[in-house]
Amino acid sequence: METAIELRDIEKEYDLGAIKLHVLKEIKLKVKKSDIVAIMGPSGSGKSTMLHMLGCLDRPTRGKIIIDGVDVSRLNDDELAKIRREKIGFIFQFFYLIPSLTALKNVELPMTFIKSSAKDREERAKELLKMVGLEERMYHKPSQLSGGESQRVAIARALANNPQIILADEPTGNLDSKSGKEIMDILVKLNKKRGVTLIIVTHDPSIARHAEKVINLKDGKIIKGG
Q1: Number of CB atoms found within 10 A of residue 92's CB
Q2: Stated pTM of the model
Q3: Which CATH superfamily is domain 3-224 in?
Q4: pLDDT of 74-129, one tens digit each?
């Protein structure tokens, strides 16, 4: 199987003036294309920082990040933005939908940065909202949607530019158990039917059971998996 993402000897430090905070230490990780990977660990273990590295949202202090064969740790900000735009979709615990926009317009938004036509954007957004079961709610604004519905919109938005990789940070953490199960069912179906590589940060063992590989972090180091 081809490798989707690889972290090679990643270190991440934050300079806080008098002290340096060493958040990630000697991280080595390979994720194969079409895998489901769960990243687990206690609060402060480095899970979110690691996800930021995988998503090109932050740069390592040392080490290399390889995405689809490209060493992205050498790219400039514009090149990193292009990688994020074309290859990676993000899903967050708190949805981050734009309150003033309908579900349809929220899903269309990422496509405005790839110069697609208004007609193509609308058709694609409708298709994605139908796929996540929201064809009857596409003209509702976030305040008119439940938490589970909002996360479905966020999933559709993450898929707007047809990414190879989905990074999900506690995607069910703000939902009740029924809605959380429905969201995981959608994500697993995407993985199985479309071959999307799925990397999930979670504290929930029931979520991690869907993964082919579970990475356990403690104090910035991988103690299991990798």
Answers
A1: 18
A2: 0.90
A3: P-loop containing nucleotide triphosphate hydrolases (3.40.50.300)
A4: 899 999 999 998 899 999 888 899 999 999 999 999 998 887 889 999 999 999 99
